[in-house]
Amino acid sequence: MEIKKHIFFDLDHTLWDFDKNSALSFQKIFKEQKIDLELDTFLELYMPINLAYWKLYREEKIGKEELRYKRLKSTFDTLEIEVSDELINMISEDYIKYLPHNNFLIEGTIELLEYLKPKYELHIITNGFEEVQNLKLQKSKIAAYFDVIVTSESVGVKKPNPKVFAFALKEANITAENAIMIGDSLEADIEGAIAVGMEAIHLNLNKEVVEGSFTSVKSLLEIKQYL
To answer: Is the N end or the C end of the chain the one with fewer CB atoms within 10 Å?
Structure first.
């Protein structure tokens, strides 16, 4: 891989262990609200439903509030559990409040950042919500590794929209040819970056079969072979 100077990372599912931190947040909420439901049963349904609603959110088909409400409502409906809108809204608010205070990272995050920091300028491009993404970075003690931090909310559109990448490159004062994008989402991170002329490394933790003009790795530390 040609030597670059700037590396952009996705945050959730790439560096920050979203699934683990999310499960801990729901565990706390279920206990507080005395919700008599097996957490694993809930999460098994919630996780794919959440991803489906995030896709709609990325495509500008639903807004933030609709995403937050419907991913919970759909999960409880699928479980055939009647939950009031009041409780759903309460769970939604508490979830956003608790989520960034859990700070588990994807295995290899600190080691990789320590390895890269002396050699590259490191940045973040994330589709997550403005109010929680910066807290996640601070609470997990990785904020200091990054120079430019771009959330989709600050741009007004979401990855893979080229405007997000263009905004991030402008903030870093560089061109696409001088940058690499690392992320877990083929659509949002990899295809989005390649479309604007950036190179990309796909973090394929689920070891799915993927093809394309990009590097695919099965762990964060494998990235050290390329950078």
So the answer is: N
